[in-house]
Every structure is written in structure tokens, then in C-alpha cells.
Amino acid sequence: MPKFPNVLIVEDSAPQARLYEQYLKNETLFLHFATTGAQMQQLMTEHNIDLVLLDYKLPDMDGLAALKWMRQNGQECFVIVITGHSSVGIAVDMMREGAKDFIEKPVSASRLKTSVNNLLEQARLQTIVNDFQNTFERNRYHGFIGSSLSMQTVYRIIDSAAPSKATVFITGESGTGKEVCAEAIHAQGPRAKQAFVAINCGAIPKDLMESEIFGHVKGAFTGASSERKGAASQADGGSLFLDELCEMDLDLQTKLLRFIQTGSFKKVGSNKLEQVDVRFICATNRDPLADVASGRFREDLYYRLHVLPLQLPPLREREQDIIAIASDFLLNYSQEEGKQFKQFSAEVEHLFCHQYDWPGNVRQLQNIIRNIVVLHDAETVQLEHLPAPLNQISAQTSAMGQPVQTATASLATPEITEPNQITPLAQVEKQAIEQAINICDGNIPKAAALLDVSPSTIYRKKQTWEQTE
């Protein structure tokens, strides 16, 4: 919603419209006027209208038709119906159809201003709630899958960091998706249409690394039969991703620092200085400060690159995301391999989420699902389909004679013996939510999953309770 909300007065009587304008002249809002339903439709299409003062009787349509048009055309705004005494019943019907209030003629200044201000405040709060919901209900983001709070934090950091040219330093265990994160930063930013070039500093021999980054001229070393552009030149105008940066040789770290500071470099075997415009994104699965302390990583380079830190959570801390990620892999690989797999059994889901720590993170989960799909075929993944080391866990569980328990919260239901013991529904709902949160040790997304509701529903209700206490 804009700084000053847009209010549309739909009234075919010019004196009445001027009266409403006079009543609202000191309020912080923009007024728009329409005398017919057609003009109303045009103005609502052209402007982001927050509130409509709608006269029930218009020359070309009635209020019910106007409300129906708004709903069909996605005009999500608050409506106040202004009506005469003879049409109060119709106004009530309109409120059932979505109008938020109605005012009888003659309209008083205080009544109009109170209703307008109250609904505009509701609109403002609704916008905040919607933004909050949108933030906490993103279950996909570029190459990521997951709606957990830890991933929502990652998404928000990427949203904030992407428009900048500042270097992002990604840390996280192997397999957590550091390159996916780097690609998301690039795709979300203004350089999205330019090149994204990735270099794995741990996979390239150190004597070839300088050439990989800066390129070389013909004859620079044995085997350099032609001139070659390095990653720095290829990424000009775009983003250069340096993965496993802490594996880089110390001598090359010095040259990299100079390149980052000046944007200029020399190809191997050349004296010509070249200038490029590159956005740097770095990543490591090690503790960079520990490498600084041990002398394996230059301190000045660390502080030059460690501008916007971003920590990716391990899969074991994303319990609620595991099945969503696994299901996506399962369906994609089943289609690719021509298999029937569609889902996981409850026992497999429990093992995935509660009995295994996934030391290889998402990459390991991906490989496990690929193994299952290639070697087996069924509609449902069962325990017997699991490869090592997961099959060892399922075998141990079976040998111990312990039934696999699904993750459900046992919420106590109070026994009712007398009518006057009946608890109001709103209180029962609050007690159930609070009990679920306590069972889950304060983990609201987990409580939401057990209650089969969206996490944003619980956050919204808690906010309402806090405001009324």
C-alpha cells in the first residue's frame, strides 16, 4: 500500500460526493471520484485502490453487481456501502458478499471518518500480515526447496544481498547447496542476464588455478598452444563464484586480493593489464577464521571478501524440508527413469526425518533417491528399498522389535460432563496451539506441521492474542 492510501468515492450525486470530500479533507489519503459503475471499473483498473465508498444505486449497475465485478477481477480492497433506509437489508446482503461496512444516509462526518480510518488501518495491518505470510510460506526459491524458518532466513538474506555488488561469503557443510545459493544470488540480482562463472578451487591443481582464473597467452607454459580466456574475463559484467576458496594456494591468494581490490589482472605470461567488472561470490565448507588463524588463508583477503556472510543450515536442522526435497527428487528421477515411484511410506519418512543425521546433506539425499529409483520400481518407497547406510538403521529398528512411530503430538482432549463446562472454541484453539508449541519445544513450524496448518496461521494468531492481552 502506498504512503497515502487511495480512496474511491463512487457516487452519482455531485452534492453528496462533494460532502464526502469535505468530511475527509483533513485525512491523509488520495481521493478519486466516479459517478458510474463503468468509471469505477476504469479507476480501479488504473489505480491501486485501498477503500471504496460505494453508493448502492448507480445509473448503470447496483452495488451487488459492483462487488461481483471486484471479486471476479481480483480487486482486493475494502468496501463501505452507502445506502438509504429502504435498502438497509440489501446492504446487509452486500456485507455477506464482501463489503466491510455500511453507512445509512444522511451520512455524518464523524461516522464516515471513523469507518474510513478503521478500515484503512485494517488494510494496513492486512498488508503487513500478507507480507509476513509470503515471507514464511515460500517453499521454493530459485533452486532451493524448503519452507523451514532457517531457509526463510536464507531467502531473505539473498533478497537483500542480490541487488548489491558487495561480496557474499557463503559457508556451510558439504552438500548444503552453496553453488545453488550463489546461482540464486546471481539470478535475483541485476546481473542475472550476464554470465555466472563458477570455479572450484579445491578441484583444480594449484599450478593450473591461476590460468583458470586469469587465463593465459600462447606459450605461457608447456601445453599453452593458444591464448585462453580465464574465468575473470568470462564473468565480465556478471558474477564469479569461487567455491572452496580456502583451498586456494597462498601465492594465488595474493594475486586474487589485488584483483578484487582493483578489478584488474594479467593473464599468465602477459604484461598487459586487463580490467573487468565482476561481482564476487565465495564459498567454503571449512571455518575460514580457523584457516586464517592457522595461516592457511590470508587475513586481509578474508576481511576483503567477508562482507555479507551467509550460513547455509545443514539438512539435519531442516527436518520439515526433508520430505519435500526427497519427493521432488523422487518424482523427477522416476519420470527420467520411467519408474512408478510416487511417494514414501510412513516408516521411510520417519527414518528420513528422525533417525538419520544426513552428514552429506542434500547431495547425499539426492544420491540416495537416485539409487532407490534406479534399482527398484514400485509406487511407494519402502524400508527394503533403502541403500546403505539407511538400510542398516531400518534393520536395527526391526531387530529390536520397536515399531516406528509417526511424528504426531498427543493433544489432550478435556472430558466434558456438564453443559456449563464447555470451553469456548477460540479458547480450545488457543490451548491446542500452545500445547503443540510446548510439545515441540517452541518450534512453531514443527507445531504447525503437527496441527496441519500453515506456520503463518500460528504466528498470526499469536500476534492477535498478544494484542488483546
UniProtKB/TrEMBL annotation:
GO terms for molecular function: ATP binding; sequence-specific DNA binding. InterPro entries: AAA+_ATPase, AAA_lid_NorR, CheY-like_superfamily, Homeodomain-like_sf, HTH_Fis, P-loop_NTPase, Sig_transdc_resp-reg_receiver, Sigma_54_int. Residues 6-120 form the Response regulatory domain. Residues 144-374 form the Sigma-54 factor interaction domain. SMART domains: AAA (SM00382), REC (SM00448). Keywords: ATP-binding, DNA-binding, Nucleotide-binding, Phosphoprotein, Transcription, Transcription regulation, Two-component regulatory system. PROSITE patterns: RESPONSE_REGULATORY (PS50110), SIGMA54_INTERACT_2 (PS00676), SIGMA54_INTERACT_3 (PS00688), SIGMA54_INTERACT_4 (PS50045). The modification 4-aspartylphosphate is found at residue 55. One of its GO terms (biological process) is regulation of DNA-templated transcription. Pfam families: AAA_lid_14, HTH_8, Response_reg, Sigma54_activat. It comes from the Bacteria. PANTHER family: PTS-DEPENDENT DIHYDROXYACETONE KINASE OPERON REGULATORY PROTEIN-RELATED (PTHR32071:SF117), TRANSCRIPTIONAL REGULATORY PROTEIN (PTHR32071). This is Sigma-54-dependent Fis family transcriptional regulator. It comes from Motilimonas pumila. The lineage of its organism: Bacteria, Pseudomonadati, Pseudomonadota, Gammaproteobacteria, Alteromonadales.
